[in-house]
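QA checklist item 7 of 12: single-chain prediction sanity check.
[x] sequence parsed
[x] length recorded as 123
[x] structure emitted
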Amino acid sequence: VQLQASGGGLVQAGGSLRLSCAASGSTFSSYALGWFRQAPGKEREFVAFISWSGRSTYYADSVKGRFTISRDNAKNAVWLQMPSLKPEDTAVYYCAARRVQTYSGYDVGYSYWGQGTKVTVSS
């Protein structure tokens, strides 16, 4: 599966962004999806996970209650809604896919990656 993330940009603290990840090349519903992010000078970290059906979701503690991951298998797309953004949310955000349907918060658990979209939150 090929993934392409989009929707990043520059936003003020408290603002919102909606990241999109479009998939192609394989049966999208066969994959569980995750969002990760990498801030400058830091390691890539888990943000959110969604199962193939969308019924199971998991979030990093840092975004729980703020961000929402969702997907539409008919549209081959997954989204990350990010309201109430903080400067510490600044990072390059990546969508990733894995065939194994169980939750994973580790980037090594994902075999397919999009190119990343940059989110900058100014204070």
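[x] summary fact logged: The chain is about 0% helix and 50% strand.
[ ] second reviewer sign-off
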